[in-house]
Structure formats: C-alpha cells, structure tokens
Amino acid sequence: MPPTPPVDVFLSTWRADPGTIGALLVASIAYLGTVARMRRRGKSWPVRRTVGFFALGLLPYAVIELGFLGSYSSELRWAFSTRIALLIFVIPAGVAAGRPLDLLPAGVRERLLASRLTRILGNAMVATIVIAAVFCLFLTPLAGILRVNPAVEASLGIVVPLVGLAMVLPMT
Fold this sequence. Notes:
By secondary structure, the chain is an all-alpha fold. The mean pLDDT is 88. The protein has helices spanning 7-12, 18-40, 47-66, 68-72, 77-96, 106-114, 116-121, 124-137, 141-148, 150-168.
C-alpha cells in the first residue's frame, strides 16, 4: 500500500469489525429506546436532534472505524493518527448534536455530570492537557505499539470517543 492511497481505494475499503458494530448497535438502541420512552410519556423530542445524533455522530464513527482509516490504522501511521484525532474531536461533537444527556432523567443526568471523572475531564484545562498528551503520544514508540496490538487498537475505537464525550458533553 502506498503512503497515500488512490481515491477509489480510500472510498472502497471497508472491514467488518464486531466491536464497532456492537458499539453502534448499543448506542442506536439506547438512543432510540430513550426517545421512544420519552414520546410515550407525552414529551416531544426534536427530529433534528435524532438526525444529528446519527448523521453527525454515529455515521462518521462507522465510516472512520469501518472504512479505510480503521482498516489501515495498524499499517499506516497517518491513518492511525487521523483516526484517533477524528475519534476524540469529531465524533463527540457529532454525538453531542443529538443532546443525549437531555434524554436522561434529571437525577441520572445530574449524578453523571457531578461524577468525578466527568468533572475532571470536562474541565477545559484538563481537556487541553489530555488532548496534548494524546498528540504527544503520536511522537513516541508507544504509538506504534498501540496500533499494531489488535486488542489495544480495537479498544481505542471505543475508549477514545468515550473520553472525548466525557470532555464535550458537560459543556453542552
């Protein structure tokens, strides 16, 4: 594989990753189930939020993880770095467009936002340090170890967006 693939290879490369597909199914079922429960109780939920959750959050996640970047992340350093950057920045912002915390009961939402992990990662200073640490990691040999270990590389596809969400959701 050349360092930069032709456009047709970039657009036509896909893989079936059970972890990613499972995460997509769990997130979709949880979101849609909560929206349905809210509507059964007579509360309205804007369709634009649901569209935002899927079109700006889960669809890009699927493309990143199941497409070229996910397929070649272990082989191409730039694909790995791009994938991680998109997972920590773009996916949380897209998911936040669906306002998933607003679907939670007030008590659950307040406990989640008051949790130590959310307070720490949601702090602008800490978020900046976490992001800087992630990008500094790309400059070390550890990045190579992370991307060639299949178990670690697969778990990054779940953990990195969750860390990004912990930083973004409190701000929304």
